[in-house]
C-alpha cells in the first residue's frame, strides 16, 4: 500500500499535468476559433464551459507532433500558435489560479479511492512482474526519476482528461505506447501484442 504522502504527491502531479495539458488544448482551440488568431479575448468563464470538437482535438494532437515551428497544420503555422500561447501565458500569469479553479479533474478523494491494481489494465502485466523488471533495471525510460518506477494513470478516452470514470491504471509501457491518440478500445490490440513480449 503506498504511503499517504506518495498518494498526495502523485495526485498533485497528475492534477498539474492535467491542468497544463487542458489549458494548452483550450488556448490552441481559442486560437483556431479566432478569425484573427488572437487570444486577447480569452476569459476564465470561457474556459469553464470549454469543450473541444473532435476536429479541434485532432488539430491539437497534430500540433503537438509537429517536428518544427515552421510546420503548418491546416494552414496554421505552429510557430505562430506557440508564440501566441506563450505570450498569453506571460500576460495572464496572475489569472492562472482562477483558470485552475475551473479545471475539471478527478477529486483527491476519488483519486485516493482508486483500487490498487493487480495488473495493468491493458496488457495484464502484474504488479509483481513489473516490480521484478524494475529491480532488474529492465525499464528503459528517459525520465526514470519521474516515470517508470510504478504503475501510471492513463485517460481511457484522451479528450476527457483525468476525470472520474475515465482512468485506467497501467504499466509504463502501455501508457507510453497508447499516447493521447488512442482510446482504450483502439489500443487494446497493441496491448495484447505487448503482452507477448
Low-pLDDT segments: none
Q: What is the succession of H and E elements?
A: HHHEEHHHHEEHH
Q: Quickly count the helices.
A: 9
* Distance linking N and C termini: 28 Å
Please give the radius of gyration in angstroms: 18 Å
Please count the beta strands (DSSP E, at least 2 residues each): 4
Mean pLDDT, to the nearest integer, reads: 87
Strands side by side in the biggest sheet: 1-2
Q: What fraction of the residues are assigned to beta strands by DSSP?
A: 5-15%
Describe the protein in words:
With 197 residues, the chain is mainly alpha-helical. It has two domains: 96 residues, no CATH class; 82 residues, Herpes Virus-1 (2-Layer Sandwich). It is built from nine helices and four strands. A two-stranded antiparallel ribbon has the order 1-2. The two termini are 28 Å apart.
Write the layout of secondary structure elements.
Blueprint: H1 4-33, H2 44-48, H3 54-64, E1 72-73, E2 76-77, H4 78-91, H5 96-101, H6 108-112, H7 127-135, E3 152-155, E4 167-170, H8 172-178, H9 184-195
Antiparallel strand pairs: 1-2, 3-4
Helix pairs in contact: 8-9
Protein name: HNH endonuclease
Please supply descriptive tags for the structure shown above.
197 residues; two-stranded antiparallel sheet; Herpes Virus-1; mainly alpha; HNH endonuclease; 4 strands; 2 domains; two-stranded antiparallel ribbon
Amino acid at each position: 500500500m503506498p504511503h499517504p504522502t506518495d498518494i498526495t504527491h502523485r495526485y498533485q502531479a497528475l492534477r498539474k499535468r492535467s491542468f497544463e495539458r487542458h489549458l494548452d488544448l483550450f488556448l490552441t482551440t481559442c486560437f483556431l476559433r479566432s478569425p484573427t488568431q488572437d487570444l486577447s479575448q480569452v476569459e476564465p468563464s470561457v474556459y469553464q464551459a470549454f469543450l473541444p470538437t473532435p476536429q479541434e482535438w485532432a488539430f491539437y494532437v497534430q500540433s503537438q507532433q509537429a517536428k518544427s515551428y515552421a510546420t503548418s497544420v491546416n494552414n496554421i503555422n505552429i510557430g505562430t500558435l506557440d508564440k501566441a500561447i506563450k505570450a498569453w501565458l506571460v500576460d495572464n500569469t496572475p489569472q492562472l489560479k482562477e483558470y485552475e479553479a475551473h479545471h475539471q479533474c478527478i477529486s483527491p478523494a476519488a483519486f485516493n479511492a482508486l483500487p490498487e491494481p493487480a495488473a495493468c489494465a491493458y496488457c495484464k502485466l502484474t504488479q509483481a512482474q513489473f516490480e521484478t523488471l524494475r529491480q532488474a533495471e529492465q525499464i528503459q525510460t528517459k525520465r526514470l526519476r519521474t516515470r517508470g518506477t510504478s504503475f501510471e494513470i492513463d485517460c481511457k478516452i484522451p479528450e476527457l482528461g483525468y476525470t472520474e470514470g475515465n482512468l485506467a491504471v497501467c504499466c509504463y509501457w502501455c501508457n507510453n505506447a497508447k499516447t493521447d491518440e488512442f482510446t482504450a478500445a483502439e489500443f487494446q490490440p497493441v496491448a495484447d501484442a505487448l503482452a507477448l513480449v
